[in-house]
Amino acid sequence: MNTPDADAPLSAAAVPDRRLYPRYTVNVQIEIHRDGSDVPMRLETTDLSHEGCYIQLMLPLSVGIRLHATLWLNGSAMKVRGLVVTRHPQFGNGIMFLDFEGQGEVLLNRYLDAIVV
User: Fold this and answer.
1) CATH number of the domain that residue 76 is part of
2) Domain count of the fold of the chain
3) Residue 36 belongs to a domain
4) Residue 15 has pLDDT above 60, yes or no
5) Quick check: is 13 in a domain?
6) Is the CB of residue 49 less than 8 Å from the CB of residue 18?
7) Neighbouring C-beta atoms of residue 82, cutoff 10 Å
8) For residue 14, is it within any domain?
9) 72 pairs with which residues across the strands?
10) Of the residues 1, 15, 93, 104, which has the fewest C-beta atoms closer than 10 A?
């Protein structure tokens, strides 16, 4: 009987995607501030979804850092609180959106819905 090797690595197809929303490859201007810091970091996203984004950063932030971010979507500022959830050395960070300020979530939904059309 052929059984899978317990030590064999899983193929990418065998690992389920845990994301609730699709990611879109889009460069959006973003400014982040670590909680407790007034020093802004101005960057660009490499992808964006309803629940977060990915930013390129040569010296990535540590997982678990909370931050405030402003993204510019079609000329409108969207403010959000976020959490660093992934770290890839010399490449970047995945940021999960936690809380949107004002109409931030509406702005993001409109922006992403326009990409799909």
Assistant:
1) 2.40.10.220
2) 1
3) yes
4) no
5) no
6) no
7) 21
8) no
9) 77
10) 1
**Residue 97: both structure tokens together:** 């959106």
**What's 115's DSSP letter?**
H
| pLDDT 10s digits, 2-14 | 444 444 444 444 4
User: What pTM does this model have?
Assistant: 0.80
What residue type is 26 in one-letter code?
V
Q: Is residue 104 part of a domain?
A: yes
Whether the Cβ atoms of residue 51 and residue 96 lie closer than 8 Å to each other: yes
Q: Distance between CA atoms of 43 and 84, rounded to whole angstroms?
A: 15
CA nearest to 95, candidates 107, 104, 105, 86: 86
Over residues 87-94, the mean pLDDT reads 94
Per-residue pLDDT at 17: 52
Once rounded to an integer, what is the mean pLDDT over residues 42-63?
95
Give the residues across from 93 on adjacent strands. 55, 87
